[in-house]
Design a protein that fits this description.
Elements: E1 10-16, H1 22-33, E2 38-40, E3 49-56, H2 63-67, E4 71-79, E5 81-83, E6 92-95, H3 105-111, E7 114-118, E8 127-128, E9 131-132, H4 133-138, E10 148-159, E11 164-171, H5 177-188, E12 192-202, E13 205-206, E14 211-212, H6 213-218, H7 221-226, E15 240-242, H8 245-252, E16 257-258, E17 266-271, E18 277-283, E19 288-294
Parallel strand pairs: 1-14, 3-12, 15-17
Antiparallel strand pairs: 1-3, 2-3, 4-11, 4-12, 5-6, 7-10, 8-9, 10-11, 12-13, 16-19, 17-18, 18-19
């Protein structure tokens, strides 16, 4: 007989393998923990590997700060071949000779660094008239896709043979690496698609400290619990505010409170006098703290 579902609050940095979907991995790990509630901090395609941030219980309340954080990816781009999905999973659309050996890769990378408009891939979950784009693509329907503003802080390119490029990219939320590979191919005049992808960093968490699915399966229940990070691990970029007992009690009850010390206007992670994490509050110009996301009492 399986143990009952239970409240589990925490964050797990998982090293997702190539093959399964992020949703199937999440549900498998949720069953291992017998967690009542679970979510994620940003999915990976089945063909991608690397850091998958899983959220349990109260940690799911703070997913927006993980989803909106910067991410780092590494992988390979296959030159000379375009596909329907802009990655290796799609149907080959065109093959072209690769004649880009003399291209300055540093200059090419600079063209795709900074803030610019990017056209999302047709096979994506973005919605148009309430339907995901991939639903149109699977029926062979062509729709106009509005470009979106993305931010790429760093892009490094190097050669791996005559028809492959290695890349490492630091980018903001909403960036499609498949689109980046496609656009690099278009810039080179030979076309390209994303051949492999691995996420190595996301919102302050690194794959070097992530656990594999196999290791998690082999662990005892106590060992699994020890791998969980606290919910506020997602909020490392927010300033910390410590409150005295009466103020902390009022905020935990959902009341707005006066700031005890001068704080920058905006979101902060808030703690009680004993160091317990209370949640996220927002400092207003009027000098008050407003509760935005609060931890439920244990």
């Amino acid at each position: 007989m399986r143990p009952p579902w239970r409240r589990v609050d925490g964050v797990l940095a998982l090293d997702k393998p190539v093959g399964p979907s992020s949703t199937s991995v999440l549900q498998h790990v949720r069953r291992l923990y017998r967690a009542q509630k679970a979510g994620h901090g940003g999915t990976l395609d089945p063909a991608a590997s690397g850091l998958l941030v899983l959220l349990f219980g109260e940690a799911t309340k703070f997913s927006q700060w993980q989803l909106g954080g910067a991410k780092t990816y590494t992988g390979t781009i296959r030159l000379g071949v375009t596909t329907s999905t802009d990655d290796a999973e799609g149907e080959v659309l065109q093959r072209c000779p690769v004649t880009s050996e003399a291209v300055d890769l540093s200059a090419l990378a600079n063209r795709f660094t900074g803030t610019f408009l990017q056209r999302p891939p047709m096979f994506s979950a973005l919605k148009r008239e309430g339907r995901p784009l991939y639903a149109y693509a699977r029926k062979g329907l062509a729709v106009d896709i509005a470009p979106r503003e993305v931010v790429i802080e760093r892009l490094a390119l190097s050669r791996l043979g005559s028809e492959q490029l290695l890349f490492a990219v630091d980018c903001g939320s909403g960036t499609y690496i498949r689109s980046l590979a496609r656009d690099i191919g278009e810039a080179l005049g030979c076309g390209a698609h994303l051949e492999s992808l691995r996420r190595t960093h996301a919102g302050g968490l690194d794959v070097a400290k992530a656990v594999s699915v196999e290791a998690l399966e082999a662990a005892t229940a106590e060992e699994r619990n020890g791998l969980l990070l606290p919910p506020d691990a997602l909020l490392w970029a927010l300033p910390r505010v410590d409150l005295q007992a009466p103020t902390a009690k009022a905020l935990a009850a959902g009341q707005s409170v006066f700031q005890e010390t001068e704080q920058q206007i905006g979101f902060s992670r808030v703690y009680g006098p004993d160091g317990d994490f209370l949640g996220v509050a927002e400092a207003t110009p009027s000098g008050r703290l407003l509760a935005r996301r609060l931890m439920a009492p244990t």
